[in-house]
TrEMBL record:
<keyword id="KW-0378">Hydrolase</keyword>
<dbReference type="GO" id="GO:0045820">
    <property type="term" value="P:negative regulation of glycolytic process"/>
</dbReference>
<dbReference type="Pfam" id="PF00300">
    <property type="entry name" value="His_Phos_1"/>
</dbReference>
<feature type="binding site">
    <location>
        <position position="54"/>
    </location>
    <ligand>
        <name>substrate</name>
    </ligand>
</feature>
<dbReference type="GO" id="GO:0004331">
    <property type="term" value="F:fructose-2,6-bisphosphate 2-phosphatase activity"/>
</dbReference>
<dbReference type="InterPro" id="IPR013078">
    <property type="entry name" value="His_Pase_superF_clade-1"/>
</dbReference>
<protein>
    <submittedName>
        <fullName>Histidine phosphatase family protein</fullName>
    </submittedName>
</protein>
<dbReference type="GO" id="GO:0005829">
    <property type="term" value="C:cytosol"/>
</dbReference>
<dbReference type="GO" id="GO:0043456">
    <property type="term" value="P:regulation of pentose-phosphate shunt"/>
</dbReference>
<dbReference type="InterPro" id="IPR029033">
    <property type="entry name" value="His_PPase_superfam"/>
</dbReference>
<dbReference type="InterPro" id="IPR051695">
    <property type="entry name" value="Phosphoglycerate_Mutase"/>
</dbReference>
<feature type="binding site">
    <location>
        <begin position="2"/>
        <end position="9"/>
    </location>
    <ligand>
        <name>substrate</name>
    </ligand>
</feature>
Length: 196
């Protein structure tokens, strides 16, 4: 899932590898997800987050535990020179693109497909050691990089808002997206079939 709202989110600033704390709204979002999982009877065998404060804090709130393992592989995309800068300064997407692709590389940032590769490998390697559900708290661009890498088409106007939840299964190193749940839309569920 994605972390809750942060100070930089409210200021329309790029976060990337920079960090900013959860806002009161972000904390409330994470608590709402904790309640949602509790209502569904979902428990986690293990809880993981990126190495960044906003993800770790979200994970602790959602899972109601301080026992969170940090994984560098699911940290946010590096935005290079645009880190902590106003979002309006970011390069414009190429025509028909749904991400920054490799546009940030000349500015010291990452290619979104490379981000997707590291996120995928981290999930595959970690999930292979568990039989029961695990929670991974990551970031919007990191999660979107995985979607781009796997060439999964999202419904129109569906974005990974704060605390968005993606349910994945792992079979023989193949990740399959089952559904996306958006707390920002009263926990509306968008089902996916066969990874599409």
């Amino acid at each position: 899932m994605r972390h809750g709202e942060t100070l930089f989110n409210t200021q329309n600033r790029v976060q990337g590898w920079s960090d900013s704390p959860l806002t009161e709204k972000g904390i409330a979002q994470a608590q709402a997800v904790a309640d949602y999982f509790a209502d569904k009877g979902i428990d986690f065998e293990a809880v993981y987050s990126s190495t960044q404060e906003r993800a770790t804090d979200t994970a602790k709130i959602v899972a109601k535990t301080d026992n969170v393992t940090q994984l560098k592989g699911i940290k946010e995309m590096n935005f290079g020179r645009f880190e902590a800068q106003p979002e309006m300064l970011l390069p414009q997407h190429r025509p028909n693109a749904t991400s920054f692709e490799d546009l940030l590389v000349p500015f010291g940032g990452e290619d979104i497909i490379e981000v997707g590769k590291r996120v995928r490998q981290t999930l595959v390697d970690t999930m292979a050691h568990h039989e029961d559900p695990c929670l991974f708290v990551s970031h919007g661009a990191a999660m979107w990089g995985l979607i781009q890498l796997l060439n999964i088409e999202f419904p129109p106007n569906v974005w990974l808002s704060n605390c968005a939840i993606m349910k994945w299964t792992l079979t023989d190193e193949n990740l399959t997206l089952i559904e996306v749940t958006l707390p920002a839309e009263d926990f509306k569920v968008y089902p996916f079939k066969d990874g599409e």
